[in-house]
Amino acid sequence: QVQLKESGGGLVQAGGSLRLSCAASGSISHINDMGWYRQAPGKQRDLVASITSRGNTNYADSVKGRFTISRDYAKNTVFLQMNSLKPEDTAVYFCHAQIILFPSYVETSTWGQGTQVTVSS
């Protein structure tokens, strides 16, 4: 069984920073795309940022220039550095990964439990 464990959420004032981490564990061959999504109260879950196995990145327009996604390939970990946070960034942030299992090479889409990020005015 594979799982994603998130950490780094919390409460910050507007203009502050947080760094989210998400580590995959289990019988993993390798991981393709990884990403961060967020869901605010009463709204749908939307992509914040993604990163491919080659390191190519994609960002939602609302976070470009403020957030940076990166990954540690050796540790099967993805990060989201969030700077210049705004109250509208408040949401539950979810980690996602496309994981290739070992030894079957079956691909599975895996979600983390979510971590709360709250930005106060």
Shape: elongated
Strand content: over 45%
Beginning-to-end CA distance, first to last residue: 41 Å
Work out the oligomeric state of the chains in this entry.
single chain
Count every beta strand, where a strand is a DSSP E run of 2 or more residues. 11
Mean pLDDT: 97
State the helical fraction: under 10%
Task: Give the topology string: H per helix, E per strand.
Answer: EEEEEEEEEEE
The largest pleated sheet is described as: 7 strands, mixed
What Rg do the Cα atoms give? 14 Å
The helix/strand class is mainly beta
How many DSSP H or I helices?
0
Uncertain residue segments:
none
Could you walk me through the main structural features you see in this protein, from its secondary elements to its overall organization?
The chain is mainly β. The protein has no helices and eleven strands. It has strands at residues 3-7, 10-13, 18-25, 28-39, 46-51, 57-59, 67-72, 77-82, 91-101, 107-111, 115-120. Strands 2, 4, 5, 6, 9, 10 and 11 form a seven-stranded mixed beta sheet that branches. A four-stranded antiparallel beta sheet has the order 1-3-8-7, with no helix packed on it. Strand 7 (67-72) and strand 8 (77-82) form a beta hairpin. The termini are far apart.
Keywords:
mainly beta, about 60% strand
Entry summary:
The protein has 121 residues and is mostly beta strands. Helices cover 0% and strands 60% of the residues.
